[in-house]
Automatic annotation (TrEMBL):
The keyword Magnesium does not apply. It comes from the Eukaryota. The lineage of its organism: Eukaryota, Metazoa, Ecdysozoa, Arthropoda, Hexapoda. SUPFAM superfamilies: Nucleic acid-binding proteins (SSF50249). Gene3D superfamilies: Nucleic acid-binding proteins. This is 28S ribosomal protein S17, mitochondrial. Keywords: Ribonucleoprotein, Ribosomal protein. PANTHER family: 28S RIBOSOMAL PROTEIN S17, MITOCHONDRIAL, SMALL RIBOSOMAL SUBUNIT PROTEIN US17M. The gene is LOC107072940.
């Protein structure tokens, strides 16, 4: 009888998965994730975007700022703030793939469609060529500083620019 009561009182926490965007964080071995959800306004009967911010454990440093990642709730909190873990990087920043067709996307158009339009009307000299573009990470230390350690800026000092402050 005591076992049945113990089982009835203990409940399992469901492991939940979320998609979110990685944003700058000052935590070590963790990333800050912005998770979007829709909130119903019952007066207007419309949904509006709202954001929740969670910290996810990422010791391998898989994700960079701007990546869309899949996170999972942990069965137990690692710390007071870290409640999730990074499962996988779904879309690296700037490289979105349509999940239904498997084609690469730029804003709201497929890259193949953009190529066809450029062939029909003539390509601009300033047009960006996605085939020749290097993958993310090649511009590290030149134009991409998202991997740098961030820290909190406490004061404004014109002599100290503090380029990696949050």
């Amino acid at each position: 009888m005591a076992m049945a009561g113990a089982r009835a009182g203990a409940s399992k926490q469901a492991l939940r998965y979320f998609l979110g965007t990685c944003i700058p964080s000052v935590k070590q071995n963790a990333v800050k994730i912005r998770v979007q959800r829709l909130d119903l306004d019952k007066n207007l009967w419309m949904y509006f975007k709202e954001y929740n911010f969670v910290y996810a454990h990422d010791p391998d440093k898989k994700c960079n700022i701007g990546d869309i990642v899949l996170i999972q709730t942990l069965p137990e909190k690692l710390t007071r703030l870290i409640t999730h873990k990074v499962v996988d990087v779904i879309y690296p920043l700037g490289d979105i793939t349509d999940p239904l067709t498997g084609k690469k996307v730029v804003v709201s158009k497929y890259r193949d469609d953009i190529k066809e339009i450029n062939q029909l009307y003539g390509e601009s000299k300033n047009a960006f060529n996605y085939d020749k573009a290097p993958p993310r990470g090649i511009t590290k230390d030149k134009r991409d500083f998202t991997y740098q350690e961030t820290y909190v800026k406490y004061q404004e000092d014109p002599n100290d620019p503090q380029p990696y402050a949050v």
